[in-house]
Amino acid sequence: MRLTKLLGLAGLAGVAAGGVVLARNERQRRSYTADDVRTRLHERHAALTTPPEPAPPAELTAGRRHRLARLLRRR
Q1: 21 vs 5: CA distance, rounded Å
Q2: Burial of 61 by CB count in 10 Å (0-12 exposed, 13-18 middle, 19+ buried)?
Q3: Cβ contacts of residue 40 below 8 Å, gap of 6+?
Q4: Residue 56: strand, helix, or coil
Q5: pLDDT reported for residue 9
Q6: pLDDT tens-place string over residues 17-75
Q7: Helix (H, G, I), strand (E, B) or coil at 51
Q8: CA 49 to chain CA mean position, Å
């Protein structure tokens, strides 16, 4: 019976700690102004719409493709 009480108290402490973390995150989220959110969204959109840089040839021939390239060179 003592063990179950200890487990119950540990569960309550876990729930309380989770509530504290959620409340802190919510408070931080609500501290943004509409202009802050808008500028962050525009920055994220601009980062996603820029084309990625081409990969160097060494990365393209890594792993299985490297083996295939070796086999093709032998022929």
Answers
A1: 24
A2: middle
A3: 32
A4: coil
A5: 93
A6: 999 999 998 888 888 888 998 999 999 999 888 777 776 665 555 555 667 777 777 66
A7: coil
A8: 19
